[in-house]
Amino acid sequence: MLKIYGIKNCNTMKKSFDFLNQKGVDYEFFDYKKAVLSQDEFANFVATFGDKVINKQGTTYRKFDDNTKVILSSGDMSAMYEIVKANQSVLKRPIVMGDGVALIGFDEGEWVGAL
């Protein structure tokens, strides 16, 4: 089963949910606003997607000071995780993980091919 990570009220997430529901794809939703991502899950995201995991276009990232932005690009997994754990909305949305599936962001063409 797929697991989709994000924030329920995000417009991109709504498109993602609509797509999955229309295709009849079963999924489990991990809401960043209701649960804390584990360090292992975060490390898996970084190993899979690299620096795309951090949404550098979002308001959460833009509010960070320069030092925090440097840490988020440093590759120091523990330091990065501590920032992300306290500010999960800095993560790109959605992130979809499952058997043989790893997607970040919503691109309908990519999703059709993967799902």
Could you walk me through the main structural features you see in this protein, from its secondary elements to its overall organization?
- The chain is built from six helices and four strands.
- It is of the alpha+beta class.
- It has a single domain (2-114), classed as Glutaredoxin (3-Layer(aba) Sandwich).
- A hairpin with a 2-residue loop joins strand 3 and strand 4.
Tell me about the largest β-sheet: 4 strands, mixed
Count of DSSP-assigned helices: 6
User: How many beta-strand runs?
Assistant: 4
Q: Please identify which CATH superfamily we are dealing with.
A: Glutaredoxin
State the secondary-structure class: alpha+beta
**CATH architecture type:** 3-Layer(aba) Sandwich
Low-pLDDT windows of residues? none
CATH class: Alpha Beta
Strand content: 15-25%
Mean of all residue-level pLDDT scores:
95
What's the SSE pattern?
EHEHHHHEEH
Estimate nothing, just give the exact number of structural domains.
Answer: 1
Over all CA atoms, what is the radius of gyration? Answer: 14 Å
The termini sit apart by 11 Å
